[in-house]
Design a protein that fits this description.
The protein is α/β, with parallel strands linked by helices and 181 residues long. It is built from 8 helices and 8 strands, in the order E-H-E-H-H-E-H-E-H-E-E-H-E-H-H-E. Strands 1, 2, 3, 6, 7 and 8 form a 6-stranded parallel sheet that branches. The protein has a two-stranded parallel ribbon with strand order 4-5. The two termini are 13 Å apart.
Length: 181
């Protein structure tokens, strides 16, 4: 099994497109949502839930934990938690301090990742995004993609091939909650 995750949404038009792709392939995913985007796109957020996918907190403003004081970082997570109903947290940039981890782990399961497509990096081609995922995924991998404006060009030109490539390798897709990580 592998876990397909999406960070930084929900974004109008982009997240619904991702949901359509997941539905067409009949696979679940986990979305780590930014509170500010849930504020802007509540209907899109609710469609993630209605379609049976997991959601997690990604903070309100996408703060870098290494550059943010603990109190401000935790307040940002709390602000997002008022609109994101999930028990999972993924730190933006995959960065948080040990003090932040220790404070957050009482309320959330911190979910990192081991495979990254680099779809947010405009110097990386869609072909390279596909290669990054297919080359590095093994059973149990947590793969991160982004349903964001920054990643849109790469995402729309790689997601289908990523899913097909993983299916060809006989991976099963699961939500984070399926294995209670």
């Amino acid at each position: 099994a592998v876990f397909l995750t999406f960070d930084d949404g929900p974004i109008e038009n982009i997240t619904p497109w991702v949901l359509d792709q997941l539905e067409s392939h009949k696979i679940p995913a986990t979305f780590f949502c930014l509170g500010k985007h849930v504020d802007l796109n509540p209907d899109v957020y609710h469609s993630i839930l209605e379609k049976g996918h997991d959601v997690g907190n990604h903070g309100y403003d996408h703060l870098n934990g290494w550059k943010t004081k603990k109190t401000a970082y935790l307040a940002n997570i709390d602000k997002a938690s008022s609109m994101i109903d999930g028990k999972y947290f993924r730190p933006p940039y995959g960065k948080m301090t040990l003090k932040q981890v220790n404070a957050v782990k009482h309320s959330y399961k911190v979910v990192m990742f081991d495979v990254i497509a680099y779809d947010f990096d405009r110097s990386v081609s869609p072909k390279k995004c596909i290669e990054n995922v297919l080359k590095n995924t093994k059973s149990g991998s947590i793969i991160v993609l982004h349903d964001s404006l920054k990643a849109w060009d790469n995402l729309k030109n790689s997601l289908d091939d990523i899913i097909i490539g993983l299916k060809e390798r006989e991976f099963q897709f699961r939500k984070i909650s399926d294995y209670n990580i």
